[in-house]
């Protein structure tokens, strides 16, 4: 989880799918002999990249922009498994704002609950011939899209208390391990949002320019 209003990035929980200790099939990212390591046996073809969470898949939800009537999210799915491609992958997301989904740029989307206020769960999946196959770990081992969500008429949208982040995520039917909501990126304090000093500086600068212009006219 990450957002434009905070430098904080909430990572996947440590050891979500196991820990590095005792993982013979864990390959360090900087290891340049990956190809030779994973060609020996069927078991080794399932090697995953060494991470804190040790999961084969990571989903990154980034709150990118907050507009007056809409807000934008960048959604990235990364494959950490070597020698394994995910064909016809699916990503199911439970989020209250999906009921007002306005646009999806690079994925296909289908609502899973289509009854009024319950329309808060949907499935994202790839486009045939474009990104329907999630390639193995490496520079091309990810798919991403931006989604645009409309703020509801009740003006209940808020960036506070983790509202912009999904409640549950499923990849190919398996539920993803979610971080604790209290670790999500938080809004800065109101004092950090206020800009009287900067405004005062700009105002003072403009006054100096006006004064100089007046002197030149005189």
TrEMBL record:
Coiled coil: none annotated. GO terms for cellular component: plasma membrane; side of membrane. One of its GO terms (biological process) is plant-type cell wall cellulose biosynthetic process. Residues 1-185 form the COBRA C-terminal domain. InterPro entries: COB_C, COBRA_pln. Its main location: membrane. Keywords: Glycoprotein, GPI-anchor, Lipoprotein, Membrane, Signal. The keyword Membrane applies. It is a lipid-anchor; GPI-anchor. It is found in: Cell membrane. Belongs to the COBRA family. This is COBRA C-terminal domain-containing protein.
């Amino acid at each position: 989880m990450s957002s434009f209003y905070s430098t904080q990035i909430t990572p996947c929980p440590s050891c979500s799918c196991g820990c590095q200790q005792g993982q013979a099939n864990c390959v360090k990212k900087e290891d340049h002999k990956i190809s030779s390591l994973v060609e020996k046996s069927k078991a080794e073809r399932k090697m995953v990249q060494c991470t804190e969470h040790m999961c084969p898949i990571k989903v990154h939800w980034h709150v990118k922009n907050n507009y007056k009537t809409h807000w934008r999210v960048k959604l990235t799915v990364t494959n950490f498994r070597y020698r394994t491609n995910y064909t016809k992958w699916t990503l199911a997301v439970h989020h209250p704002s999906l009921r007002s989904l306005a646009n999806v740029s690079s994925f296909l989307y289908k609502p899973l609950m289509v009854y009024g206020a319950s329309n808060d769960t949907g499935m994202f999946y790839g486009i045939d011939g474009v990104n329907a196959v999630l390639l193995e770990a490496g520079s091309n081992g990810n798919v991403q899209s931006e989604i645009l969500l409309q703020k509801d008429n009740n003006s209940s949208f808020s960036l506070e208390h983790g509202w912009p982040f999904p409640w549950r995520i499923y990849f190919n039917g398996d539920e993803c391990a979610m971080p604790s909501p209290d670790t999500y990126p938080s809004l800065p304090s109101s004092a950090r949002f206020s800009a009287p000093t900067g405004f005062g500086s700009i105002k003072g600068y403009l006054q100096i320019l006006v004064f100089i212009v007046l002197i030149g006219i005189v």
